[in-house]
Amino acid sequence: MEYSRYMNSGIQSVSPSGIRKFFDIANEMQDVISLSIGEPDFQTPWHIRDEGIRSLEKGKTWYSPNRGFSDLLKEISGYYQRRFGITYSPSTQTLVTVGGSEAIDLCFRVMIERGDEVIIPEPSFVCYEPLTVMAGGNPVIINTKNEDNFRLRADDLRAAITDKTKLLVLPFPNNPTGAIMEKHDLEEIAKVCIEKDVFVLSDEIYSELTYGGRDHVSIASIDGMYERTIVINGFSKSYAMTGWRLGYALGPAEIIAQMTKLHQYGIMSAPTTAQYAAIEALKNGDRDVDRMRGEYDMRRRLVVDSFNDMGLSCFEPLGAFYVFPCIKSTGLSSDEFCTRLIMEKHVAVVPGTAFGECGEGFVRVSYSYSLRHLKIALQRIREFIEELKNGD
Amino acid sequence: MDKLLQLLSKNSQFTTGEIAAMLGEPEDYIKAQIKEYENQGIIKGYQAVVNWEGIEDSFVEAMIELKVTPKKETGFDEMAKMCMAFEEVESVYLMAGAYDFALIVRGETMQDIGMFIAKKLSTIDGVISTGTHFIMRRYKDRGMNIFDEDNQADERSLIL
Fold it and tell me: What is the mean pLDDT of residues A331-358?
C-alpha cells in the first residue's frame, strides 16, 4: 500500500533526529566507549525510589487528577519560590506533565497559530524545531556563537523578530553547549521581548546544574517577564529521574488552563507512582542535588581541561553536563570527526550539527559518566588527535 | 570533607594534573598537599581493591568479635596493640555494642584461623570471649562493587 497517502504530510516531512546515526554504529561495535548519552548516570536517589515503591505497596495505582496531585503542585510551587523567587499558584498556574518534553509540546500547540514564527536559538535540543513545525509554526533560527560563549545576544534576537513572531524559546542551561544565561544577559533579552511583545518559553530542565557559583536565573523573575513566560522544568536531570517521565509547566493561568485541556484529552494525567516519588524529591532531595552537582563539576573541569590540553579549544560551559569543544583545527567536519573517532578509536560523541547547522565544527561530549570511564575515553580521543596531527 | 582526600580515597590513580583540573587548583599546590598529608600520616598508603575470588592459592578471612576487660590505666589501647601485632590480623576496630573489638583475620585455611584464635588470641590476658564469623564472599568492598560486573553495565539508551 502507498502508506504515505494515508498519513499527514506535515508530520512525514519532519526528519528524525540526527543523533541516532552514531548510536546505531556504536551499537554494532564491541568495546565502544560512549560519551554521547544525555541523561544522568546516577540512579534516582534511594529515598525517592522508596517513596515510589511505598506508594505501590499502599495500592496507589489510580489516575491522578489531570493537573497532578495537589501535594506535588504545592511542592513545585514552593520550590520555584524558594529557589528562584517566583510565585506560582499551585491550583491555577502549575501543570504536571509527562516529562518536560510534553510541556514543551503543549505550550507550542496552545500558543502557535498557523504561520506564527517561533525563534529558536541553536545549537539546542533537537525537539524545538520539529515540534514547532508540527504545531503549524515557522521556526526562525538564531545561531549562537562560540565567541559569545553560546549565549543569546539581544541584538541577534531583535534582528530575528518580525511582525509574525509569537514566541522565543530560551533553552538555558543549554544542551548541547553547556552555555548559561546570567541575569544581565536575560535583562537585555527581556527588554526586547517586552518592547516587541514576544512571549518566552523558558526550558529550565537543567536549572539545578550550573557551576562556578552561578545559580540559575529564570527569565520569569525579570521585571515584566512573569506575565509573558511559560517556564518548563522537570525531575529528569536534577534528581536523576529520567525514566519516571515527570515534568511541569508554570505560567499565566489562562495559558496553563489551555495546556491542561490538551493534556487532559491527550494524556489524562502524569504517572501516579512518579508523582509520589517526586513529592519526596522536592521535600528531601536538596542534598542529593548538591552531591550530584559536585560530581558533575569535577568531571566538567577534567574534561574541559583535557580538551584544551589536546588542542581542541573548549569554552568553559557553566551548565548542564556537556562540553562543546571546537574541532575545526583538525580540518575535519563534525560528521567526519565523529565517524572517524568511532571507527578508529571506538569512542562515540555527537556531531554539533545534530543540534543545528551552526553546530558545524563542534562536537557534543557528555560528561554524565564516571571519572574512570571519562579518563579512558579522553585518553582515546587524545590518541586520535595525535594521530591526526601526525597524518596517520 | 576534604575534596582531595575524598578523591584519592576513591581512586588513587589520578595524576596530580588531573586532580588539579578537577578541583580547580594549581598542580603544584596539589602535589604539596599530598606530600603534606603523607608526611602527617593522614594518607597512610595506596592499595588496590582486589577481587580475590578468581585467584588461586587465595586465603580465607574471618570477622572476630572480642570481649575483653579494659585495663585500668591504658583502657582498650593496650589490648588493641596486642591484637595489631599479629600478622594474621588485617584490621582492628573498637566497637560500641555487644562486644568490644572487631578483628579481620586472614589465614590460608579455616583451620589456620581456628588455631590462631585458640592458641594466640583467646589466650591473651584480659580476653573474655571470642566469636568467629567466616567471610564467605565479598560483594562490595571499600565502596566498590566487586561482585556482579553485569550490574555495572551502562543500561542507558540514546533516545533522541
Answer: 94
What's the residue count for chain A?
Answer: 392
Cell 499565566 belongs to: A252
Note the pTM of the prediction, 2 decimals: 0.91
Q: What is the ipTM of this complex?
A: 0.80
Q: B64 and B122: one domain?
A: yes
Contact list, B11 vs chain A (CB under 8 Å): 371-372
Residue B73 has pLDDT above 70, yes or no: yes
| B150 pLDDT higher than 80 | no
C-alpha cell at A332: 575535519
- Alpha carbons B38 and B44: distance in angstroms, whole number: 7
User: Residue B128 is part of a domain; what is its CATH number?
Assistant: 3.30.70.920
Neighboring chain A residues of B156 at a CB cutoff of 8 Å: 37, 39, 41
Which residue from A39, A126, A302 is facing B156, i.e. has the nearest CB?
A: A39
**Non-local CB neighbours of A29 within 8 Å, separated by 6+ positions:** A342, A346
User: Which of B8, B11, B16, B22 is most worth mutating to test chain A (most A CB atoms within 10 A of its CB)?
Assistant: B22
Name the CATH superfamily for A3-44+287-389: Aspartate Aminotransferase, domain 1 (3.90.1150.10)
